[in-house]
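Recap for those who missed Tuesday's class. We walked through two folding examples back to back. For each one, the amino acid string is listed first and its predicted structure tokens come directly after. Nothing is annotated here on purpose, so try labeling regions yourself before you check the end of the notes.
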Amino acid sequence: MAKKEIPEESDEIDIDELMEEEVEEEVEEAPKAKAKPKKKSKAKPKAKPKAKAKPEIVELEDPMIVKKRVKRYIRTRENPMMVSKTIYSKLNDKLIAIVEEGCKRAEANKRKTLHAKDI
């Protein structure tokens, strides 16, 4: 009988071949996902776009000014002064009045944008 020669195993391992074999095994073992039948949806009538509602007039709860910056400005002037707590509410009221006056002027000029020239 003729003896089959068994090739000697080498210490070198080809990593690429091993990775390909592992990937092929994983692909074969992966379960196939079944395609779900699509459900027929009932067509809903499209709703008409809603008209934009005018925003409600809201009284401001928070001041429109930054107290810290006002205080810093007054204290760093050429003639620095102390700042009373009552100044902020009056300053806020004046600011609102100026903005309202500018808005009325813009509306009189048939614009919806408030510009510096309106103030």
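Example two. Treat it independently of the first, because the proteins are unrelated.
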Amino acid sequence: MQNTIVTYCNLLQPIADRNKLAYKLIMDNLLTAKQVQDLLKVDRTTVYRMLRDGRLTGVKVGQQWRFSGQSIENLLDGQLGPVEKGTPVSVNVLPLHCVQPIQDVFAEIAEVGSVLTDNNGQPLTKASNSCDFCKLILGSEEGRRGCIESWQKLVQLEGLSPEFIPCHAGLMYTRAPIHVQGELIATLIAGQFHTHAPDPKDEVARIRKLAERYQINFNLLTQAADSTSVLDKRKKSQLSQWLQRVARTFEQIGSERSDLMNRLKQISVMSDIMP
């Protein structure tokens, strides 16, 4: 009989060992409330509140709770998913205090005027490196409205490749759309130049018409128009490349800032602190 019991116990020992191993593996992947507090930098009350609302996964072992190590890892890795599913990306992800000086340097080096607009063609930044001709046009309330209408047409262009189109005042412009997380949030515009030397007679008629329409001194506008630059084929190609590079830089800035803002919101959600 004793031999039978010993034999039976020997048969059960591997099963017991496997159960102990399984229990150890499970417990090794479970964390105490104190460990969760230290990892998430929250108090004990918040840990149990997160357990109740489903943000943490836990099991009760005796009189104490143990928490899933994987759920904590997911929280720390920012795998909570979007804070608000389907919320569109805002143009606010672009820090304009950083964007403005980059735009200024680009416009100065490229020897063009430049501005960043929202999806309605409204300027988000101050116009950089404006030529005297455009300063006079923008100084008129009606002229400024004309500029914004021209920017709106640029924003509405389809495709990503730069196109050169005339504005309401007869100068040429191009643009580069800025996307963050697949959404158009802004457009970088460059212009205030000719792509070929204008005909003198046509130029006089154009300037006279603009002077009358926007109530600007004809002689001042003519003098300013004489300094408008003309871009040859090489400079047009160069401008297109530079414009795209600056736009991609803005996209990178926007994407990184958007990710940071989402992580901060997730931390706020984890700690039950309203933003």
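Answers for example two:
The chain has two domains: 21-76, 91-263.
The CA atoms of residues 70 and 193 lie 58 Å apart.
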